[in-house]
Amino acid sequence: MSSDFESYEQDFSVLTAEITGRIGKVPKLVGDDKKQMVANVEKQLEEARELLEQMELEVREIPPQSRGMYSSRMRSYKQEMGKLEADFKRSRIAYSDEVRNELLGDDGNSSENQRAHLLDNTERLERSSRRLEAGYQIAVETEQIGQEMLENLSHDREKIQRARERV
């Protein structure tokens, strides 16, 4: 069973490496070559999604005691997939802006600066959101620990009061 998972893992690794290389080429190409490359990357991303689904099915078949390691691998693969999709989206945005500029005869310098500024702001916002989520998680964990401590202290108090009553 895990050999199937490892086979899917190898296929996923090869596929993501190909996708990464092609995503890097998209902004450098022009015309029909660029359209063809975008279509190929979309197909490969779909194949990668299907591989992830197959890997998830394999993980479900693994006994619970050894499932943890595979589950953590799956989380990292999903993160990698999300990163690839975001990178592809950025390269497609650059591609669509270039097509628009060709049609309108615009040099695009100001829009490129605006896009770069927006991407920087988006990344900053995502980092801030992750920090807020982490802070919230810590607050929730701290609250749970505090609640457990109060319960323990309450039980200890009851024990001491019962001991006093016996004496």
Kindly summarize this structure in a few lines.
With 167 residues, the chain is mainly alpha-helical. Helices cover 92% and strands 0% of the residues.
CATH architecture of the largest domain: Up-down Bundle
Q: Major β-sheet, in short?
A: none
Strand content: under 5%
Poorly predicted ranges (pLDDT <50, ≥5 residues)?
A: none
Order of helices and strands: HHHH
Mean pLDDT across the residues is: 83
CATH class annotation of the largest domain: Mainly Alpha
Radius of gyration: 26 Å
Helix and strand composition category: mainly alpha
What is the CA-CA span between the terminal residues? 63 Å
Find the count of extended strands (DSSP E, 2+ residues): 0
The named CATH superfamily of the largest domain? t-snare proteins
Number of domains: 2
Globally, the shape reads elongated
